[in-house]
TrEMBL record, chain B:
Residues 183-302 form the Aminotransferase class V domain. Residues 1-26 are annotated as: Disordered. Coiled coil: none annotated. This is glycine dehydrogenase (aminomethyl-transferring). Keywords: Oxidoreductase, Pyridoxal phosphate. It holds the Pfam family GcvP2_C. One of its GO terms (cellular component) is glycine cleavage complex. GO terms for biological process: glycine decarboxylation via glycine cleavage system. Residues 383-481 form the Glycine dehydrogenase C-terminal domain. The glycine cleavage system catalyzes the degradation of glycine. The P protein binds the alpha-amino group of glycine through its pyridoxal phosphate cofactor; CO(2) is released and the remaining methylamine moiety is then transferred to the lipoamide cofactor of the H protein. It catalyses: N(6)-[(R)-lipoyl]-L-lysyl-[glycine-cleavage complex H protein] + glycine + H(+) = N(6)-[(R)-S(8)-aminomethyldihydrolipoyl]-L-lysyl-[glycine-cleavage complex H protein] + CO2. One of its GO terms (molecular function) is pyridoxal phosphate binding. It comes from Allosphingosinicella deserti.
Amino acid sequence: MLRTIGAPSVEDLFVDVPEAARLATKIDGLPDHASELAVERRLSAMARRNLAAGEVPFFLGCGAYKHHIPASVDHLIQRGEFLTSYTPYQPEIAQGTLQALFEFQTQVARLYGCDVANASMYDGSTACWEAIGMARRITRRTKAILSGGLHPHYVSVAKTMARFTGDLLETSVPDLSPEPDTARLLDEIDSDTSCVVVQYPDILGRIGDLSELAERAHAAGALLIAVVTEPVALGLLRAPGEMGADIVVGEGQSIGVGLNFGGPYVGLFATRDKYVRQMPGRLAGETVDAEGKRGFVLTLSTREQHIRREKATSNICTNSGLCALAFSVHMTLLGEAGLRQLATLNHAKAVQAAERLAKVPGVELVSETFFNEFTVRLSTEARPVVRTLADRGILGGVSLGRLYPGAEALENGLVVAVTETSTDEDVEALAGALEEILA
Amino acid sequence: MSMNREGRPTKPDSAGEAGEAQTWTGNRALMLEEPLIFEMDEDIGTGVDFDEAPKVASRLGGLERNRPIGIPGLSEPQAVRHYTRLSRQNYAIDLGLFPLGSCTMKHNPRLNERMARLPGFADIHPLQPVDTVQGALELIAELGGWLVKLTGMHSVAMSPKAGAHGELCGLLAIRAALEARGDAREVILVPESAHGTNPATAAFVGYRVESIPANERGRVDLDALKGRLGPDVAAVMITNPNTCGLFEPDMIAISEAVHAAGGLVYCDGANFNAIVGRVRPGDLGIDAMHINLHKTFSTPHGGGGPGSGPVVFSEALTPFAPLPFVEQQGDHFVLVEEETAGEHHASSFGRMTAFHGQMGMFTRALSYILSHGADGLRQVSGDAVLNANYILRSLEDVLEAPFGESGPCMHEALFSDKGFAEGLSTLDLAKGLIDEGFHPMTMYFPLVVHGAMLVEPTETESKAALDQFIGALRSVAERAKAGDESLKAAPVHAPRRRLDETQAARKPVLVWKPPVQAEAAE
């Protein structure tokens, strides 16, 4: 090969690198290559230093949920033709990915009660921020009103971006009260408002009707953005799009993806037909080939960075394709009937768990309404309680102190998620431990 | 008993031409047509078994669904078949050479997949108490340590979700650093040959984008750049090796000039695979660079993600890095979030994603890095560059290599459509390559070269595989130069012929609708 190239050695191919920056040998202070077995040993040892959710009674939620994922989901996404393919820029040899994305978009649009959905975003938090930017472009206004019930990390992401884009964010911290902050949001909508952003169910698990918010936002020329961090909830709950939300975004992790310590996840993004050209991200669309056969392509790319460059609707390029596929495969296995059963099971277990925990002295149920996640007020600060529970081998929930550091009014709050994976014994273990700790 | 010699023929007869006839199913043997899940008559309810739900009084606040959703369910065998059939309509690295320039489609080792699925990594929640995730934090810290050492930089932000998110991270840190010194600058300079994400990101962060020209050798025009630098220039975004597949030999001079003018240097690290283990961007004066773990460090592309785009920073930008991040304190690893950031990290520009980044990609990337080690990674870049130069020199007699004269290329070889017969284009050549059983190279990028074809073989390919590809590309290129009009019909052997992208964009159909509804909408 070097003879064909006409170079004496591989090193000579790097002549353009300034001498001063060219390393003569491998980088010092780093180990050499290792065998497959050695790497497996090393990483397995690291993995053992973590407490896996499946090993213990587990009740964490707040934007990431533990659900059972059928074995065939992981099998199918590991097929090399999906796993090791690229973004489908050559549609003739990427119909598999493109058709799966078209099916995914349809599933998401229907689940959210919207006209159209895109082919995924990085995660729920970045999808939420992109939705705020999209509302700014549509309304040409910059004031976004964020519900106190919006996940605080989603709020943080929006604040980071707003610092540089000039958006004005009206934010607040939630109250430990039974109902979401719909009334406050209704009061704040005015003629400068670009959008109202509300989480459904909210960070404390509470569920509010979005219809009035949608009406009032529309009357003021603003958009309603609904954020759904737990898509399983929509197996039972009315879709935000049906209640008038203009953009619905959220996290898809619950369906098909797994916990993964926070990533990779899959951002879902849906809206009305009339806003599709303002939408960020990739879109698969239907067309025909030269013989008139139906096929799918990436479309409306004139919105995107590789064509529009600095005028693009977003800079997003690689998104979350394989997680979108996992979501879609799991959703296809569930079907509407299965999703409804799954949601029913989650809700029923959560209701039972809430009732059980409310009987523990020092535990008071805060959320009046909820799906599979509810907030309780403990008689003491929740964060140390969560640590003590972990020491006893119970991952007992997310303390509001972790999510809202410094907010004293919230520090006794604990958010408990209960899914189909939680057994009666798990709930009993949590209740029993809390009885002892809070005594 | 005599043998029956007149049974099954063992040789095709000349009537084999009849293979072109239409089949009743529309299938062609292993090439199977597959309807959408919404079109199957097999909606069986659900393919998942559930325990009976206990009866409880609803706490949903009267917001129960009152309309069907319209999502069909398949049984496990039906679903397995549906997706397996779809998968067979995809090209993939597992099937063959994937020469997509600037995308680094290298083999995805399966050990990585196994490691990422260990329950200790895959089944942990991002908000678990940090004492219960010490191994995960250790892994993030260890991978970060490798990235810092391999790049010769000062620190690393692990949370960005993909390359473009990493660019955003880098530019947010640059903007925060400039604001912190009360220096409001407005312009980002981007070479003409840059990835589209660069100007898109710069604009997203509120900067005005100005283009800087390339010289005749395909490199940044240093004099033009110096002439444009001034107090309004916040940063230069540069890709090195650049998108023409060439190293910027003036990189150190560029960085010095930018710094002297008070600006900062962002490097798009998409092409890091060409120099890993041989050149440390920190030695080139770079202030921030993203690293696509899904390129250089072999995490799978998955049909368009998920990726991961950690960003390495110079000392000057380190205080502005995003939250959260992992810090080692003795034997213990802590997660520095908003509350613990304190004064030490008061200038962080904030959070850019809900949690801590793409853990699943970190596991895979570290598995790859540990497998290769310092010696193996150096060999990766050497082999990748060797392979690209072999392609360049093996084909430059048939395809014009616009910068072939200026010396070796790095990890990708760039060709143009010069010499193609009237009416035949790069697109036709690319589609012809599909019929030869290859994924096409990157086309029409970089924009600075007419009908550009950017070929990146990666270190994965053997000489035999490269020769096979070179033979195919040579054949198609000769057809394009000879005016072989049949190329305009290519591909003819793929699951689909050329697809009408204009129609797709003019009347977008982005979700499936039942036939009646679809007609009504016309």
